[in-house]
Design goal:
- It is a single chain.
- The protein is mainly beta.
- Helices cover 6% and strands 17% of the residues.
- Strands 1-2 form a two-stranded antiparallel ribbon.
- A hairpin with a 2-residue loop joins β1 and β2 (43-48).
- The protein is elongated and about 60 Å long.
- It starts with 12 loop residues before the first helix and ends in a 21-residue tail after the last strand.
């Protein structure tokens, strides 16, 4: 146990703040502008989010695998 009475595998807020956070989207957030490769009509194509400004868009990410859905 540490000086606060917690098990050793629990870290403090101060220790956690040393590590950068990834973007976590919540309801109402504006998506950051980004460029990525996309599967479009049978081929891989680079797209930018701002190409779709003013349109409805569904973003689907599955970063652990490149299996076509």
């Amino acid at each position: 146990m540490n000086k606060h009475g917690y098990e050793k595998n629990i870290i403090t807020v101060e220790e956690l703040q040393k590590y950068p956070r990834t973007f976590e989207a919540t309801l109402g957030d504006i998506a950051p502008i980004f460029e990525a490769e996309s599967y479009v009509n049978g081929s891989i194509k680079k797209i930018r989010l701002d190409q779709f400004r003013g349109s409805w868009l569904i973003l689907f990410f599955y970063g652990s695998d490149f299996t076509f859905v």
